[in-house]
């Protein structure tokens, strides 16, 4: 069994429902166990022009899948949630990214782990630090907490904690 951390994001439709559905599908996979969820955060879109706010969160899982197999399963869940790739960096019902896979560094066609932009993203580090604050990111040699503290204040101010999966529904 290997420990993996997955980032979830949605900025179309019922964002909390898309996230809850993704987690239900993850929990239903025979090769995925012990799914732990962070809070949901409402986050300002980074790198996108005039798009709607995102809901972001991170989950920790233990899996018997190798990272490339796990990625395929995540992409299948994205499709099932109706992800349409209208254009690069377009809005999406659901985006699932592998952030970390044990302490492994992976550089395959179509799969880079640790995720190459995670260290600059408050919408990733804010939820991730709830689950793995002391985890030292391979290749960066710094803990998740340290990376979060080093983010520019403007980055950290772009995310707002909404609460757990259920609470977000009541917002
Ligand atoms: N760690 C990873 N997790 C998920 N996808 C990855 C990863 N590394 C590379 N990819 C590749 O990225 C491709 C583009 O994915 P996508 O369009 O969802 O990018 P994005 O998530 O919107 O952008 P970003 O990668 O900056 O978060 C996928 O087809 C996948 O093969
Ligand atoms: N706030 C926010 N911004 C983003 C996000 C995201 O999930 N949340 N995902 C991106 C590409 O995957 C680019 N920008």
TrEMBL record:
Per the UniProt entry, the Enzyme Commission number(s) are: 2.7.6.3
Tell me which Pfam families the record gives: HPPK
Assigned keywords, A-Z: ATP-binding, Folate biosynthesis, Kinase, Nucleotide-binding, Transferase
Molecular-function GO terms, alphabetical: 2-amino-4-hydroxy-6-hydroxymethyldihydropteridine diphosphokinase activity
Q: Where is the 7,8-dihydro-6-hydroxymethylpterin-pyrophosphokinase domain?
A: 88-99
Which SUPFAM superfamilies does the entry link to? 6-hydroxymethyl-7,8-dihydropterin pyrophosphokinase, HPPK
Family annotation (NCBIfam families): folK
Name of the protein in question: 2-amino-4-hydroxy-6-hydroxymethyldihydropteridine diphosphokinase
């Amino acid at each position: 069994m290997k420990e993996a951390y997955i980032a979830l994001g949605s900025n179309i439709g019922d964002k909390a429902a898309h996230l809850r559905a993704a987690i239900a599908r993850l929990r239903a996979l025979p090769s995925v166990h012990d799914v732990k969820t962070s809070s949901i955060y409402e986050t300002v879109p980074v790198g996108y022009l005039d798009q709607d706010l995102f809901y972001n969160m991170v989950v920790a899982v233990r899996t018997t899948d190798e990272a490339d197999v796990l990625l395929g399963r995540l992409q299948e869940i994205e499709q099932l949630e109706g992800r349409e790739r209208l254009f690069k960096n377009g809005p999406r019902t659901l985006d699932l990214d592998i952030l970390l896979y044990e302490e492994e560094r992976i550089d395959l066609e179509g799969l880079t782990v640790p995720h190459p932009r995670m260290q600059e993203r408050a919408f990733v580090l804010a939820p991730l630090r709830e689950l793995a604050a002391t985890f030292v990111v391979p290749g960066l040699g710094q803990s998740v907490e340290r990376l979060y503290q080093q983010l520019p204040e403007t980055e950290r101010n772009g995310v707002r904690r909404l609460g757990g999966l259920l609470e977000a529904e009541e917002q």
